[in-house]
Amino acid sequence: MVDFIDRTYSVATQPTVCMHCEDPVAPCAQVCPVMAILITPEGVVQQADASRCIACRNCVYACPFGVPKIDLSARLMKKCNLCYDRTSQGLQPWCAQACPTDALWYGTFEQFATERQGKAIRQTQFGTQEVRTRVYHVLPTWTKGLEVAEPNVTENTVEAVQDQEEPWIV
After folding, report:
1. Which among 7, 17, 65, 88 has the fewest CB atoms less than 10 Å away?
2. Domain ranges (residues) in the chain
3. Tens digit of pLDDT for each residue in 66-80?
4. How does pLDDT run across 140-151, given as a tens digit for each residue?
């Protein structure tokens, strides 16, 4: 998935790469009431199964990294699945293959240690909650870790999001 920065000010895009949470195991999958989000034996958290997803948004609210996106017209959750069709055959995900600056990189930890610089970490601290992922962040070597401040969510924020959705017609 690609998030578009405000198009009135920039043509920049930003990839929204799933971190494939390991501990706790995929919060998005844990909260899915219809078990539409499956996890492969390799730990890849899949996009929601279109035949099962009810677009309840539980996954959106549960993901600490803000990765799942709801396609309202399709009534379906979409997210990065690590290009599982490619990576299961030994190929790179498209984001890593197409990244012109090599900021997105795909390989084993051993390959990283010999080919790249920086401190690879896979723990992110959200206040008192720590999340360990299968995807690494690369930080400067002097950095202790990655700590993310708690978001400032108010009732007004929730109401604004709810006002944007069209009602379902059953």
Report:
1. 7
2. 2-88+97-155
3. 999 999 889 999 998
4. 888 888 887 655
